[in-house]
Amino acid sequence: GDSVTQMEGPVTLSEEAFLTINCTYTATGYPSLFWYVQYPGEGLQLLLKATKADDKGSNKGFEATYRKETTSFHLEKGSVQVSDSAVYFCALSVSQAGTALIFGKGTTLSVSS
Amino acid sequence: DAGVTQSPTHLIKTRGQHVTLRCSPISGHKSVSWYQQVLGQGPQFIFQYYEKEERGRGNFPDRFSARQFPNYSSELNVNALLLGDSALYLCASSLAMDGKETQYFGPGTRLLVL
User: What span, in angstroms and rounded, lies between the C-alpha atoms of A11 and A106?
Assistant: First the structure.
């Protein structure tokens, strides 16, 4: 079945460091790919998305490129801030019966000043 | 515009009881989905409703049920609660359901079953 695999956390970085969170997927159809972020005690917020191969999603300095050949959607940011500390979820959506989001287990990012 | 709203924010129940969780989608959104997020895990899909009809169901027992009302709000019902039902229940709404649409999440209802 369809699935998403994220790198294990926690990821601990110093402010202004470069961030990469790896995400790979398995899907039978042509999924749309998403990154959501969850701050402590809150629901999920969409960070960025890409709906077809080679699309690049970007928002707030974060970027991810939909790579069909490697079935990947890695999240990157050139310079993290303390306020980026949160849990990041990679997810896919395949239009079948319903359009459920399938999430990875999440990666906790902790940024220190 | 208001985002997705959920009520209550927190709930404590005992095993065997029944619970009803409520969700109001973003104005104009016709699709509502429910997810269960156990501590330390990613959300798991429970149901999706579109135009008041069930359009998708995840791998959850029949103790879980839901419905969508004419104003597109939704309820999630869980019967015969188990300790393992303790989780954050998230509601998400979207304009459509073509697989490319963005689902917008509410803050969730945190359920504790004792």
Answer: 11
Output helix, strand, coil percentages for chain B, rounded to the nearest 5.
5, 50, 45
Contact criterion met (CB below 8 Å) for B86 and B12: no
The C-alpha of B80 sits at a distance from chain A's nearest C-alpha, in angstroms, of: 25
How far apart are the C-alpha atoms of A33 and A66, rounded to whole Å? 7
Residue A96 pLDDT exceeds 70 = no
Cβ contact (<8 Å) for B45 and A89?
Answer: no
Q: Residue A63, Cα to own-chain centre: how many angstroms?
A: 9
What phi, psi does B12 have (nearest 5°)? -120, 125
Nearest CA distance, B42 vs chain A (angstrom):
4
Distance CA B90, CA B73 (A): 14
- Please say if the pLDDT value at position B1 is more than 70: no
